[in-house]
Structure formats: structure tokens, C-alpha cells
Design goal:
alpha/beta, 6-stranded parallel β-sheet, globular, binds 3-methylbut-3-enyl trihydrogen diphosphate, binds magnesium ion
């Protein structure tokens, strides 16, 4: 099986999952954390090397304060409860997104998780938290402009590699497969630059229902896609035309 090296997931539908059961949105998010655990475990078993999970977008701050607080609390809960086990399983945890506006306790936990697991290499779990694709590009641009203004970089030498390297995902390969649950068919400001050639798979299931078999199903869909990267399909190439 041709397993994608990097799978990125927009974990959507926690609220609807809860509403359908007459429960609070918070309980949907809580159930969503269980689905995160299963997704990480499954990714390791399938042989995926990088798993990026969209946990909180730069636009999610617009939600009611109580829900924002719940989501912050759940991130802390997840790291506190699961970090030791992730480390045992040799998972490297990394976080992408804007960090300045995060509370110090969250920042400290994220840094602790990254530091503890930085030598691990079974699977890289990349948590996109306070992440926005546009914000990522803006911050990268600022970095590059500063280097140019300082005379450390010749503007004429700026190319796609320069920008790719300056993004939060600098040394992480682009996603091969981008999955979104909940039936919505949009990117919602996720990895805008990085997903240029990702295969998109939209699943109707809500995130709390995303289990190992749903993950496997998405990988099977990926198997049947032909990636061309602007070229022509490989058999046609071999034939010459
Ligand atoms: C995804 O579920 C989790 C986050 C965005 C943090 P939602 O909370 O967006 O659930 P729906 O889309 O309202 O059902
Ligand atoms: C995308 O879901 C963000 C995350 C999954 C963290 P949203 O629920 O915020 O996206 P929209 O608002 O439906 O586009
Ligand atoms: Mg949503």
C-alpha cells in the first residue's frame, strides 16, 4: 500500500456531534480528544510519518469565550494526560501556529512537549494550534523581509524554497493527503501554501466518529488517486507521445 508520508486532518464536526445528541458543544470536543488518540495510534500503525491535526484556528477566537476556554483547557488536558504515553510510543510532538497570543501556561506545556519528545522519530505529531495559513505566510514574509532589511538576504535570491523554509512547517514535507471530516468541503485557512498539491478527501463523518476504519478508508481513497504535479500521468510518460 502506498501510504502517504504526511497526512493532515481538519478535525471538524464536534459541535454537531454533540448537538445531535442534545449535549453541550463541550462534550463534543471532549469526545473529539478520544478520536485524536485513536487517530495518532492508527497513523503510527499505518506507517504514516507525519500527522498534522488542526486543533484551533486563528479564527476560532471569534467563538464564545466559554467555548474558547474549553478548547484551551482541553489542549492542556490532552498534553498533561497523554504526553508520557506519546513519548513512550516514540512520537515527536511539534506545534505550529502563532504563539505570542497564547497564555504562558499553555505555551509552557507546548514547549515541554516539544522538548521532551524532540529526539523521537516513530511518528511526528504536528498540532496546529492558533494556526492560520494566511498568518503563517504573513509571519514567514516578515521573517524574510527582516533578513533582507538587515542585509543577510539578497531579495533577488528569494524563491519558493525560501518561503517554504520560513513557514512554521519549515523542515516538514508538504502534506500528501488532506482529510476533512463533517462534510464541509473547504480548507478554512489550513495549510494554504503547503497543501498546494495535497490530495483532498472530504468525509461525511463527524470528527468524534472518526475511527481507525474511517482513517483506513481515507487512505484507500488516496491509493486510487493519480498525482501528477502538473506533469502527465506516469504510464503516458513512459510511452512518450
Ligand atoms: C471542530 O469542531 C473543532 C474545532 C474547530 C476546534 P467544531 O467545533 O467546528 O464543530 P462544528 O463544525 O460546529 O460541528
Ligand atoms: C476548522 O474548522 C478549524 C479546525 C478544525 C480547528 P471550523 O469549524 O473553524 O471551520 P469553518 O468555520 O466551518 O470554516
Ligand atoms: Mg466546525
Amino acid at each position: 500500500m502506498n501510504v502517504p508520508q504526511h497526512v493532515a486532518i481538519i478535525m471538524d464536526g464536534n459541535g454537531r456531534w454533540a448537538e445531535r445528541r442534545g449535549q453541550t458543544r463541550t462534550s463534543g470536543h471532549r469526545k473529539g480528544v478520544e478520536a485524536v488518540r485513536e487517530a495518532v495510534r492508527s497513523a503510527g500503525e499505518f506507517g504514516v510519518k507525519y500527522l498534522t491535526l488542526f486543533a484551533f484556528s486563528s479564527e476560532n477566537w471569534h467563538r464564545p469565550q466559554a467555548e474558547v476556554n474549553d478548547l484551551m483547557g482541553l489542549l492542556k488536558f490532552f498534553i498533561r494526560r497523554d504526553l508520557a504515553e506519546l513519548h513512550r510510543e516514540k512520537v515527536r510532538v511539534r506545534v505550529i501556529g502563532e504563539r505570542m497570543s497564547l497564555k504562558p501556561d499553555i505555551l509552557a506545556l507546548l514547549t515541554e512537549a516539544e522538548e521532551l519528545t524532540k529526539e523521537n522519530s516513530a511518528l511526528e505529531l504536528i498540532i496546529a494550534f492558533n494556526y492560520g495559513g494566511r498568518d503563517d505566510i504573513v509571519r514567514a514574509t516578515r521573517l524574510i523581509a527582516t533578513r533582507a532589511a538587515n542585509g543577510d538576504l539578497d531579495p533577488a535570491s528569494i524563491c519558493e524554497k525560501t518561503l517554504s523554509a520560513a513557514l512554521d512547517t519549515g523542515d516538514i514535507p508538504d502534506p500528501d493527503l488532506l482529510i476533512r471530516t463533517s462534510g464541509e468541503q473547504r480548507i478554512s485557512n489550513f495549510l494554504l501554501w503547503q497543501a498546494a498539491y495535497a490530495e483532498l478527501v472530504f468525509l461525511p463523518c463527524l470528527w468524534p466518529d472518526f475511527d481507525r476504519s474511517a482513517f483506513e478508508g481515507a487512505l484507500q481513497v488516496y491509493q486510487n488517486r493519480t498525482r501528477r504535479f502538473g506533469n502527465i500521468a506516469e504510464p503516458d510518460l513512459a510511452l512518450g507521445s
